[in-house]
Amino acid sequence: MPSSPPRAASNGGDNSYHTFDIERFLADQQQYHPGFGKVQSPAEAGATAEARMMAELRTFEKQFGSSDRPSSS
């Protein structure tokens, strides 16, 4: 039995791919689509990225206790 060809979203087709893309975009509040949302200077973007990285490192150290180990020097 031949299957029907995929239909375009504008013709009432499956919108799940579009919904997934939109939900994925909205899930990360730090991510902005080019041309939309907050515009950051390169210095602001760098500071934001560094702050996010430091927060992730602190979380990692809490979880794995890497700061309790003696240094290898």
**End-to-end CA span:** 70 Å
Question: Which band does the percent of strand residues land in?
Answer: under 5%
User: What is the global morphology?
Assistant: flat
Following the backbone from N to C, one meets helices and strands in this order, namely HH
Overall mean confidence score, pLDDT = 73
Helix content: 40-55%
What's the gist of this structure?
By secondary structure, the chain is mainly alpha-helical. 48% of the residues lie in helices and 0% in strands. The mean pLDDT is 73.
Tell me what the structure shows.
By secondary structure, this protein is an all-alpha fold. It has two helices and no strands. The longest helix is centred in the last third of the chain and has 23 residues. The radius of gyration is 22 Å and the shape is flat. The model has no long low-confidence stretch (mean pLDDT 73).
Name some characteristics of this structure.
73 residues, 2 helices, 0% strand, flat, mainly alpha
